Amino acid sequence: SPAMARPRPATSTAAEAELMLLERQALAEEEAAKAKQELLTRFLQHKLSREEQSSAWGLHKVRTLWRSVLRQAKDHELRRDIEILSQTFSQVMDCKDGVIEALVRDLEEAEEQHSRALSSHLHLTDQLLQLQRCRLGYLEEGFNAQVGALRAEFEAERCGISRGEGERGSSGTHGLSWDGAEPLPAPPGPSQLLCQGGN
């Protein structure tokens, strides 16, 4: 019964109180440690989030800068290629201009030579025509002279034959006779005389 219960010693009560105090302190320290851990965890998570954002922004910035550098490098490379192509094109055009000028000079020289050759040919042709005219004139003069000589000779022979026939007729002898009914033989033509002159 409570009346019969003996009171606890003071030392036991003090120990229990101290133990409870220690337990409360340990619990408080544990709660404080948990709170500190949670706070540290939130801080680290926040810092990690900021770092991730900063890293993403930095990566975006780096990519942007890298693209800019690549564009600049590509632009420089393209400009250099364009300059090289422009120089090459200028050299090719200069070469083609030189070839065209040379061809124009050759064409002008060829036209000049053709003109000189044509002029010389026409001059020689005129000379040959003049020589041919002179030769034909000489041949015509010779032909006319031969025709005149043949006619004179023929007339002389005809007159001689006529006289002979008259003498024979008066003496009663018969021989060659020509009564004038038959035509005189034609004198040789110019072609025959030209052939004779050529022979």
Helix content: over 70%
Tally of strands: 0
Distance linking N and C termini: 194 Å
Structural class by secondary-structure content = mainly alpha
The helix-strand sequence is HH
Oligomerization state of this entry?
single chain
Number of domains: 1
Give the count of helical stretches: 2
User: Which blocks of ≥5 consecutive residues have pLDDT under 50?
Assistant: 1-5, 173-184, 191-199
Proportion of residues in β-strands = under 5%
Largest sheet: none
Radius of gyration: 73 Å
Mean pLDDT: 81
Shape: rod-shaped
Subcellular location: Cytoplasm, Cytoskeleton, Flagellum axoneme; Cytoplasm, Cytoskeleton, Flagellum basal body
Protein name: Dynein regulatory complex subunit 2
InterPro entries: DRC1/2_N (IPR039505), DRC1/DRC2 (IPR039750)
Keywords: Cell projection, Cilium, Coiled coil, Cytoplasm, Cytoskeleton, Flagellum
3D structure, described in words:
This is Dynein regulatory complex subunit 2. With 199 residues, this protein is an all-alpha fold. The chain has one domain (30-169). The protein has helices spanning 10-171, 190-198. The termini are far apart.
Main features:
86% helix; mainly alpha; single chain; 199 residues; disordered N terminus; disordered C terminus; rod-shaped
